[in-house]
């Protein structure tokens, strides 16, 4: 079982625009032509930040058009937020806040032998990293630049903590990088 941060980023290191839009990403490739179908089949639980969840709520129709469902996950999800948020009908979600270590224990129990996916955002993935719980980063880099926005991983991580284990080209617009987090040398946050 691994705790994985699987996300897409612009070439200049942003996962969303400053307004939390992901519209830049969709023209770059088809999700079904990526490693996502295989990846999601091994996921047993999800962690999601409030900005990512709110994007899902705002774009439920777009998500439903792409995937067939407004909430495309069958796995239980933990939504990290200090605010009260709208519930997506039919979603198996829990709203939580506070320390990721305690919630990670609950997620591990729910996931069984499957992996935990840190869906987004970058700071939430960073909190799992800070707690020594993040095992792998799977980063799909798109051939677009945003200039500013929500950062991929707002932490200072110096070599050799992240070990590149694979690189895969996905069409003309994306490349996937997989990094293993070497637990013997976790650096502090910046």
From TrEMBL:
One GO biological-process annotation of the entry reads: riboflavin biosynthetic process
Listed A to Z, the keywords are:
Plasmid
Against InterPro entries, the record matches this protein to: DHFR-like_dom_sf, RibDG_C, Riboflavin_Biosynth_HTPR
Taxonomy, superkingdom: Bacteria
Q: What are this entry's molecular-function GO terms?
A: 5-amino-6-(5-phosphoribosylamino)uracil reductase activity
Q: Does the keyword Oxidoreductase apply?
A: no
Statement: the UniProt record of this protein carries the keyword Transmembrane helix? no
Which residues are in the Bacterial bifunctional deaminase-reductase C-terminal domain? Answer: 5-174
Which named protein is this? Bifunctional deaminase-reductase domain protein
Q: Which organism is it from?
A: Tolypothrix tenuis PCC 7101
């Amino acid at each position: 079982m691994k705790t994985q941060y699987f996300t897409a980023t612009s070439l200049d290191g942003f996962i969303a625009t400053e307004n939390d839009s992901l519209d830049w990403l969709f023209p770059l490739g088809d999700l079904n032509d990526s490693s996502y179908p295989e990846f999601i089949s091994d996921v047993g639980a999800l962690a999601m930040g409030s900005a990512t969840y709110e994007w899902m709520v705002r774009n439920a129709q777009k998500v439903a058009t792409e995937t067939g469902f407004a909430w495309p996950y069958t796995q239980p999800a933990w939504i990290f937020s200090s605010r009260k948020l709208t519930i997506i009908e039919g979603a198996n979600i829990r709203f939580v806040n506070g320390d990721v270590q305690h919630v990670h224990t609950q997620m591990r129990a729910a996931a069984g032998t499957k992996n935990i996916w840190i869906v987004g955002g970058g700071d939430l993935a960073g909190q799992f990293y800070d707690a020594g719980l993040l095992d792998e980063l799977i980063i799909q880099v798109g051939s677009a630049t945003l200039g500013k926005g929500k950062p991929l991983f707002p932490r200072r991580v110096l070599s050799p903590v992240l070990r590149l284990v694979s690189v895969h080209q996905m069409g003309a617009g994306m490349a996937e990088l997989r990094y293993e987090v070497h637990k013997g040398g976790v650096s502090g946050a910046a």
